[in-house]
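Worked Example 4.2. Read the sequence first, then its structure tokens.
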Amino acid sequence: MLPPRAESVHWARSFAGGSLIGWGMGDLAQDMALVVSELATNALRHGLVLDPRNLRESGAEPIRMSMIRRGSLVTCAFADPGSAAPVLRHPSPLEPGGMGLHIVESMSLRWGWNPLLPQGKVVWAVLKS
């Protein structure tokens, strides 16, 4: 679970790197760290449901990170309570950010998202060692 704090992105990267090293896939650690950073940041920024009355988490499910290995493929997934689909935006020179999913797309074999019931979604990316 990732608490709604900036240091959660660092924790997610550390977890991913440690998992890959444990699986003997340390060669994938740099690419996975970048993908994890982008997915975790998006989940924290866009996936949390906020209570507009006091701008705190509304008690919805937390963000959860998981990694699955199958042979030389590793899937990293982030589940969050938000219902909005991730959007691959066209970056603007006038707005900072907007490159996260472009980075995920360029670093992974494939990426996508699936809705969760009764609410939420999971956003995932597959990398190959």
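Now turn to a second chain, presented in exactly the same format:
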Amino acid sequence: MTDVNAATETGRVDEDEAGGVAPLRLEFAGEWHDLPVDRPFIIGREGDLEVDDNPYLHRHFLELQHRDGLWWISNVGVRLAATISSAGGAVQSWLSPGARMPLVFERSVIVFTAGPVTYELSLHTEQAPYEVSRQVQESMSGETTVMPVSFTPLQRQLMVALAEPMLRREGVSMNELPSSSDAARRLGWTMSKFNRKLDNVCDKLDRMGVQGLRGGAGKLATNRRARLVEYAVTSQVITRADLPILDDVALRAQGASDDD
């Protein structure tokens, strides 16, 4: 989901006048990589950035390349998707297999899940063609609201329980996604209640136009938990400040009769 008012053009200087291509740097697990401008940079189980030996991860998954005056990110995999977030979470795209998009902000966060593991990396440039608009800067400071959707306390609890490893991370770029049974146990819920709440949250976001939470023909996608975590964290629907609600006994007591 993208806020069309989230960006303003900076008046990018022509590359010849600027003396070269705007450099792009990638950070993953505390290591920095300067991307080459004369060839694609491959991310996956193999390639320029060997993320992990996770068998669920494509050998070649994401490709970064400079062309037509811009840096582009392409999904060259066949099964996995990635969430691309910029402008403090106000601009978010779901990069499905075969898709590509330009990187137009100073910083972009890429999150993707392969099997039980969620990965996060970031891209940085000091010469971006777009900058965050004043409207979004104000919303990021709390003066206005970007996300026109509300969640019940129990729905927020569910999202925080699923995203807890990511929210508690300290400079770690890989996190194990909790299973449904583990998340339900963390909340003190039955599996039927957990699945009902998960249905409610996914349905609400699907109606907003968030992709990847349904598998088509009304059938919920099997990887909806991973997609929900990616969306909720990168769009800042939930943040680290929400972690205390997992231990809120009053909310758990309320949940005994809640059927939202």
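Notes for the reader: The longest helix spans residues 191-208. Residues 22 and 69 are 9 Å apart (CA to CA).
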